[in-house]
Amino acid sequence: MKKVRFNREQSFETVKKLVCENLVSFGIEAEEAAAEFDIMIEFLTGLRRSQIMLGANVELSEEQLVQLDSFVDKREQRIPIQYILEETYFMGQRLKVRQGVFIPRPDTETLVEVSLAKLKQLYGHEKIWMLEIGSGSGAIPVSLLKNLPNLRAVSLDVNKLALALSRENAVLHEVDWRLELVHESEWWKIGRKFQALITNPPYIPRHQQATLQPEVGLHEPELALFGTDDDGLGFYRQICTHAEDVVMAGGLIAVEVGDDQGEPVRELFCNAGFAAVQTHKDLNGIVRVVSALIATRE
Ligand SMILES: C[S@@+](CC[C@H](N)C(=O)[O-])C[C@H]1O[C@@H](n2cnc3c(N)ncnc32)[C@H](O)[C@@H]1O
């Protein structure tokens, strides 16, 4: 398809049609293309998405049209829209994102909501510490710290770019003084105990690599995607082996799982002797989180 070069003679509706047609010709689904157009316009104009969808009278300047053009060019390479705009929204909050660091997903909001409810129920207003494995953009600790003033967090990542971005997001949301970021891959060696271990670990089985969307497979960091062991469940097995080294008796474990991993992870946690093992569904009705407690000794 011939590439668009937008100009101010074109109506907003024409620009929208051209952008969407281009995105679809790159292999992006029509519904996603329309949603991305709204996100681009929201970013460029500062208008809210509801205003754009209701057909607010949008007039784009020459400069904005040039930027729009460059967004479409980058989408042709299937660079995720979040990397192009260097931002996304998680739990209703704006977060910075950057190439080289995993993009936080709406699915992970389930993990944050379950963790919030459990921590409130277990500890009320007590001062508590959590450990996160795999900071990425800092989405999980930043959201939890914003919502729980009595919480402090240590978050680990193997990826230094992720730690730097987490720091920026923590500063953006003014929770940086309650967050320690550590460059570490063997989390069980942290040498401290916490009231909670929370993680969205890499869990995609390596054999599914060919099925990934180009946005994910070509552009997101491999270390954030693929779980260890053939079934992708290696991180959960590590948790079964080492959780007691880092979580106090009675403390919380909450993990995100991939599609179809809820039952195997529930079983792993039960076999490891964890207490109160529960599964939690996301908004699509898929088990997305498994939670448990470290059993207290009699
Ligand atoms: C699926 S991403 C999750 C990122 C973020 N928590 C989120 O939910 O958006 C997994 C993260 O774990 C990190 N990671 C992978 N292996 C690790 C390890 N052994 N120790 C610490 N972090 C690791 C990756 O670099 C990546 O940032």
- For the termini, the CA-CA separation is 70 Å
> What CATH architecture of the largest domain do you see?
3-Layer(aba) Sandwich
Indicate the mean pLDDT.
94
Helix and strand run: HHHHHEEHEHEHEEHHHEHEE
CATH structural fold name of the largest domain: Rossmann fold
Strand order of the largest sheet: 5-4-3-6-7-9-8
Continuous helix count: 12
Strand content: 15-25%
Classify the helix fraction into a percent range: 40-55%
Largest sheet: 7 strands, mixed
Structural class: alpha/beta
Low-pLDDT ranges: none
CATH class of the largest domain: Alpha Beta
Number of domains: 2
The general outline is elongated
Compounds present? S-adenosylmethionine
The named CATH superfamily of the largest domain: Vaccinia Virus protein VP39
User: Mind telling me the C-alpha Rg?
Assistant: 21 Å
Number of strands: 9
Characteristic terms for this protein:
alpha/beta; Rossmann fold; seven-stranded mixed β-sheet; binds S-adenosylmethionine; 298 residues; two-stranded antiparallel sheet
